[in-house]
């Protein structure tokens, strides 16, 4: 049985439909990310699961129990906020123990649990500090410990890392994932950072305009995007205007270059389509296995250390490609002619 | 530039004199009860007066109840308005300002008309009832200050998110108010409390017309019948107000976690 089920969830603010027919079933211990641009309804979905917002329609079940109309304080859900939201008048230990005190647990049990939680987040000595005496990263860890102390059925995190600086953001997200795995707690993580979502999730829900456009494992979302929006929102994508030349053979025409796809095309002859490729599947020069070759001109090169990003003009359109740095291969000169090759099975055809 | 500075200093000096001179005069006069030498005779006579002690302690007790009742009404109201009815804030603020616009004499006549012995709720019929009415009147008079203080206190915390954090940890409304909201606005409540205290101690109109033995009417009575004692009383009342102001400053400065917030 799924740990958390969301069925036909709807939310409108006045005439504004913010969440539309949202369906999601999460397994016990799964780590799910909600990914999408600002205003797409991620927070609203999360707040409905937490009980801070009441749905306009649909149902939410936790462990089989219908909680759609249950108060937020009766759902036993852990919540971590972007702004930490620690109680400023309480020490770290009192913050972590708050939920247990509210539940009137015995004092000894609270003390033991607080110690255990502070060890879990790697801050065993900071129990007596006040929130204002902690760094942002430490505060967010304490907020996590506070949410976990009550042994919630589900853990919800709303952009917990976006107020932190880049380095801590990466280390803390690993730590959150690690703790989540150890406790085996069902988790929903909201973010608008695609790298964050792809790197730590079991599955990613890509949202746009209140709709879940695609739900799948990070590898699947990145490599087999189902819609144009998903393809463009997740990762960098080169898009080339193309035209169907011969649907049966899977032949497309990009300017003067013919591209033969590995599968037939469903669109009729002459239909304009978009041919898409990730920068890393394109290779500078010919390479074994790359059956499609374009000729173009180098427009720009960016040396990023381990990666060399090259911008080229191909058939009058701009594309970007990434190659790994190799000491023997200096970046190509801007303005020179060059060939780009790609394996046709790595190309995506996006319907409009 | 220089002359500008000079003028500001002059203005400041004039203001200081305007406030300080009458005060100094009063103080000086209060010390002249014994012919030819400065003495504390007036103060001694005031403090020895049993009526002083009775009326003063009556007013202190009234002040304490007023503060408790005021805080009990204002804190949940201001919290709820901030959390759930933000667009009602201007209206509520206007209502809390009314006691500054409506003279106490009007309020007290309204009370007497509404709650007299032949009304449905004859509060003025008994001593306890009249005390209750007086206390509620005091709470009304201090409402503008109490509300503003608490509302300012609430502004320094993220009321919405803290409430939700507490809710997700299982807390109900009373727990949230008692354990999260009140402790974080305690400094604000205290500064509201000191202003309330100063108001209640010096209040004359309500107490006098409801005929209660409060400190305000006592001061008025002494002022009408004695020479040096009223000056001493004025100095005492003034010191109480200033001590209250000082306490507001102290409490604000020495609260453990507030210096953190922004
Ligand atoms: N209380 C509310 N009243 C009216 N409209 C709201 C309310 N809360 C959210 N909305 C609207 O719902 C839409 C979705 O908001 P939501 O906060 O869920 O977006 P989000 O995906 O979390 O965005 P972000 O990445 O910026 O946090 C927005 O257009 C927002 O304006
Ligand atoms: Mg959001």
From TrEMBL, chain A:
InterPro entries reported in the protein's UniProt record: AAA+_ATPase, ABC_SmlMolc_Importer, ABC_transporter-like_ATP-bd, ABC_transporter-like_CS, Mo/tungstate-bd_C_term_dom, P-loop_NTPase, Transp-assoc_OB_typ2
Matches recorded under Gene3D superfamilies: 2.40.50.100, P-loop containing nucleotide triphosphate hydrolases
UniProt protein name: Spermidine/putrescine ABC transporter ATP-binding protein
Key word ATP-binding present: yes
UniProt keyword annotation of Oxidoreductase present: no
Pfam family, one: TOBE_2
SUPFAM superfamilies: MOP-like (SSF50331), P-loop containing nucleoside triphosphate hydrolases (SSF52540)
SMART domains given in the database record: AAA (SM00382)
Domain ABC transporter: from-to ranges: 4-234
Coiled-coil intervals: none
UniProtKB keywords: ATP-binding, Nucleotide-binding, Transport
Gene Ontology MF: a single term: ATP binding
Automatic annotation (TrEMBL), chain B:
PANTHER family with a match to the protein in the record: INNER MEMBRANE ABC TRANSPORTER PERMEASE PROTEIN YDCV
Protein name: Spermidine/putrescine ABC transporter permease
Gene3D superfamilies, A to Z: MetI-like
SUPFAM superfamilies membership: MetI-like (SSF161098)
Main localization category: membrane
Localization of this protein: Cell inner membrane; Cell membrane
Segments crossing the lipid bilayer: 57-79, 91-112, 132-150, 185-210, 230-252
Membrane topology value: Multi-pass membrane protein
Domain ABC transmembrane type-1, first and last residues per copy: 56-249
Species for this entry: Thioclava sediminum
Keywords from the named record: Cell inner membrane, Cell membrane, Membrane, Transmembrane, Transmembrane helix, Transport
Family membership: Belongs to the binding-protein-dependent transport system permease family.
